[in-house]
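Q: Focus on the chain.
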Amino acid sequence: MKEGFGRTMVAGIVGFFLILAFGPMVPREVRAADTFKIGETNPFSGPAAYLGTVYHEGTKFVVDEYNAKGGLLGKKIEIISEDNEFKPDVAVRKVKKMILEDKVNIFGSGTGTHIAIALSKVAAQYKTIGVNYGFSQPLEKKDFTPYYFRAGVSPYSVTSGHAQLIGTTPHRKIYMIYQDYAYGHTMAKFFKENLKKHIPDAQIVGEDAHPLGLKDFAPYINKVIASKADFVWSSNFGVDAFNLVKQARALGLKTPFPFITHLAEELSFQNTLKDDALGILHCFCYSLRVDTPENKRIVAKWHEQHKKEKDPMTWWPASAMGCTIASWQTIFAAIEKAKSFDPEKIIQAFEGFRHKTLVGWYEMRKTDHQMLVPLFGGIIEAENPYYDGSIRPDMKFPWLGPKIITFPAENVAPPEWYH
């Protein structure tokens, strides 16, 4: 055996065993050379399954638009979806699998503060960018990591919009009703802070936290009537939101006695309540009523794609679907600014990044990775120009009036509590 050949052979054997021991030292960009992979974990089963659909459809719309024009930085975008069952431990397990086996470049979820906190730790552990692009509480300082971004709207911002919208009305005697768990108490806490800030002469004349899935709201509604309240604030969602309003109307709080919610654009809310929804105020991070060329383009394109679907919930990009579109538009634009899929470069590009979305400017605050977003408020008082019965007769109900109030991002931004 020649000496040179022997040295070469030894080097080859050593290299082979190094590869076995440490794995191929190939940058993630090279390993995912053909595609940019998004790991999506949302509830796709159980009572919150509709939220999975809402956030997936919004994500998919932006991905499809990018792929139609050549992808992101020249790479086709692929979504890998996993059901987290609305449980943090399941979400963690599914995301770790997506990082280690599916080799995702970025992962995200749309809902659940408990999910966001758990996944922020995964982002830090694997130095992979994680995003929450929906509606949940920003991370506290102890949970902060540079690898995780809060790319949607926060409860503080939504309740700030609620308080400011109420401030445009003559109502000052407010009764608070909310679900008795972490989300409900968080929303109530922030609403009280914002009410004091924006309407100092307002009076909270009663407050109740009720069990989830409550069937009989009569005891609470009777307390509202006895308090002489002229307004009801509630952060309820799902069946609790429907039952609260329907039973209140039946027991004496007739239209247009006002409630406020962030659900008014959701088809299930409107179609369940119909005329009982009249007089309800709404404020959230998206509205089909936003009058920008980009929003009009997307609403028309979305409807053309979805109008034949059996479930009308996705006929238009209402509520959280529109918010999700704005968030992913900003996330992808930040990656384009980075000109790289490298997490460190994305962090650098995303911090302080400002992007014009379909509804206005979104900005990622550098200090705590909280997206600052505008909100849009209005009142249910008009004939519905979208679900107006022209496609299906049962899809006819009152809807948000044409005049909406815009609350710029800087006017509803949460304080920098978290970092």
